[in-house]
Specification:
The complex is a heterodimer of chains A (about 170) and B (about 375).
Chain A (H helix, E strand, L loop, with lengths): L1 H13 L19 E2 L4 E3 L5 E3 L1 E4 L5 E2 L15 E4 L4 E10 L10 E8 L3 E8 L11 E7 L12 E8 L5
Parallel strand pairs in A: 1-11, 9-11
Antiparallel strand pairs in A: 2-3, 4-5, 4-6, 7-8, 7-10, 8-9, 10-11
Chain B lengths: L3 E8 L10 H16 L8 E5 L8 H9 L6 E4 L5 H14 L5 E8 L25 H16 L3 H15 L13 H6 L2 E3 L2 E2 L9 E9 H7 L5 E10 L12 H16 L8 E3 L5 H10 L8 H7 L15 H5 L3 H16 L13 E9 L3 E10 L1
Parallel strand pairs in B: 2-3, 2-4, 9-10
Antiparallel strand pairs in B: 1-7, 1-8, 4-7, 5-6, 8-11, 10-11
Helix pairs in contact in B: 1-2, 3-12, 5-9, 8-9, 9-10
The chains are: A mainly beta (about 170), B alpha/beta (about 375).
Chain lengths: ~170, ~375
């Protein structure tokens, strides 16, 4: 998966569409990178951050853009916040068989992110034996495997890496 | 309100039916259940059909088209793996309402082949990019919580598959009837750690049906082979902080079990047998605790003890479970009930749970959200 995504990044850089960190202006502005995941937000300058909501009534944290708090049902109580891109590993599996065309193995991980958000993502780690419950991880934004929408706009995604690992 | 009774119950052999439609499978199961009850389709006043992939095509009416278009009202329900249990529960409520005395509930499914799942999102396909959305991964991640908390081993998880596949060798209607020793379960293809292929339920086709009647009708028919419905609960997943990214099969199952036990006025200590939703081997361990069959953290000890194998204190999944009998999604929730009925009547053949009087059937449906159906049945 890592090799595949690195390949996709190289391919994207080879074209004129740019990447998440390479903003496009002017008439091609509609090809600016966009969010490829419910918790990812992308600013006009291409900067990406995490965003989730916390209910001011019950304190529940949720990633989904809901119509009301899915914990207590209160309306107009969800306050957006920006979790820091760090967390700890809550659970994982190493996926060896996936849908056709998906490169395996990869680590599917659930991370307790800063601020009470739980997030599933792919943990890029070479040594599966080094996976440990509660280990610190960092969230890195990426080009979502080179995926683009139907108009050719690139997505911004994310993956986890072990804290302390080089990017 | 008066009780309801199952007076007919049967299923077709689960497996691959490339030349049959799901409506034909439903029809075959319905006819078996009608014959079992010595009733005809003209006696049936309403039909409830559970199916997940085929529900939009009006399974119940298409089935009547094959066995008798009597004009009876039809209700086509879809609720992921809980579709069959939902159909049964709605059939029970229809009889309890007093409007009907005889209703048919059927679950039927032609499953798609291969790994299920794949989210309907407007972004890039998530699989691999944002972890895994394939069902084995969800259950593997839920199971890993148990591994972390209690030290459960892959061998203990594998023992569930060994047990249920062994049970299936005594069930001629199971899709697979093959002994799978521990070494074989562990050596089969790794799908999502710690789940190997033999710890995952196979995608097969199937159908099962039950006839549910009022107490008045049951007495009229004679109670000889009737089974009393003591509890019928259907619940959805309440809010849990880590969901849906962290799949939680436990909260919803505990809620469903609590409601069913309360309705029945019974507890886990009263059960003689259980058919539970072992879609993946580790799910059986989680549901031992969710259904109160053992204390939290004791599931691995329970499988090790042999108490949940046929001949043990509380046999679980003597049908072979979803792991060996197969898991035709919408049919599963009805088939689990059919299995309990066989045993309460003493008609389960080589796998008969001796003296079974009370049994519990459980299913869990999920598609990032969840549903749980629990039925408690008693020999009438």
């Amino acid at each position: 998966m890592q090799a595949q995504q690195r390949g996709a990044v190289r391919e994207a850089k080879g074209r004129d569409l740019g990447t998440a960190s390479n903003t496009i202006a002017g008439p091609e502005a509609d090809l600016a990178p966009k969010s490829g995941h419910k918790v990812v937000r992308v600013g006009p300058d291409g900067e990406a951050w995490l965003e989730a909501s916390r209910c001011s009534n019950c304190g529940a944290v949720m990633a989904e853009r809901t119509r009301a708090c899915r914990s207590c049902g209160a309306r107009n109580t969800l306050v957006p916040f920006r979790p820091k891109a760090i967390g700890t590993l809550y659970s994982w599996t190493v996926v060896y068989r996936s849908f056709p065309g998906i490169k395996v193995p990869f680590v599917s991980a659930v991370v307790d992110v800063d601020g009470g958000l739980a997030l599933k993502g792919t943990l890029r780690i070479d040594d599966h034996d080094s996976l440990k419950f509660g280990m610190p991880v960092r969230i890195e934004f990426d080009d979502a495997g080179g995926a683009k929408d139907k108009d050719g706009r690139p997505y911004v995604g994310f993956h986890f890496v072990a804290e302390g690992a080089s990017a | 309100m008066s009780d309801t009774f199952i007076v007919g119950a049967d299923m077709i052999k689960f497996g691959r039916y490339p030349d049959s439609s799901p409506f034909e499978l439903a029809a075959d199961a319905a006819l078996l259940a009608l014959d079992d009850a010595s009733l005809t389709i003209q006696d049936v006043q309403a039909v409830f059909a559970g199916s997940t992939f085929n529900s939009a095509s009006m399974v119940a009416q298409r089935m009547l088209q094959l066995i008798g278009q009597t004009g009876a009202p039809c209700f086509n329900v879809s609720n992921a793996c809980a579709a069959g249990a939902t159909a049964v529960r709605q059939a029970i409520l229809a009889v309890k309402s007093g409007e009907y005395d005889v209703v048919l509930a059927v679950g039927a499914e032609k499953n798609p082949r291969g790994l299920m799942g794949g989210a309907l999102t407007d972004g890039p396909p998530p699989e691999g990019l944002f972890g895994s959305v394939a069902p084995p991964s969800f259950f593997a991640e839920a199971g890993m919580i148990h591994v972390n908390r209690y030290g459960t081993t892959i061998e203990q998880i594998a023992q569930v598959a060994v047990k249920n596949h062994h049970h299936s060798t005594m069930n001629p209607k199971a899709a697979y009837q093959i002994e799978t020793p521990l070494e074989e379960v562990l050596a089969s293809e790794m799908i999502a750690w710690p789940l190997t292929k033999l710890m995952c339920s196979p995608n097969v086709d199937g159908a099962a049906a039950v006839i549910i009647v009022s107490e008045k009708k049951a007495r009229e028919m004679g109670m000889g082979r009737a089974v009393r419905i003591r509890g019928s609960a259907l619940v959805s997943d309440p809010f849990e902080p880590r969901t849906p990214d962290m799949f939680d099969p436990n909260t919803v199952a505990r809620l469903g079990a609590a409601k069913a036990y309360e309705q029945a006025g019974l507890g886990p200590e009263d059960l003689d047998m259980v058919e539970l939703h072992d879609c993946f081997a580790v799910a059986e361990l989680l549901h031992y605790e969710n259904l109160g069959l053992c204390a939290d953290g004791e599931a691995a000890r329970l499988i090790d003890s042999g108490e949940t194998a046929l001949g043990g204190r509380l046999p679980v999944n003597v049908s072979g479970g979803l792991l060996a009998k197969g898991h035709p999604i919408g049919a599963t929730g009805v088939a689990n009930i059919v299995e309990i009925v066989y045993h309460l009547r003493g008609e389960a053949g080589a796998r008969q749970v001796e003296g079974a009087r009370i049994g519990l059937a459980h299913v869990l449906g999920f598609a990032s959200v969840a549903a749980c159906g629990v039925h408690i049945l008693e020999k009438a």
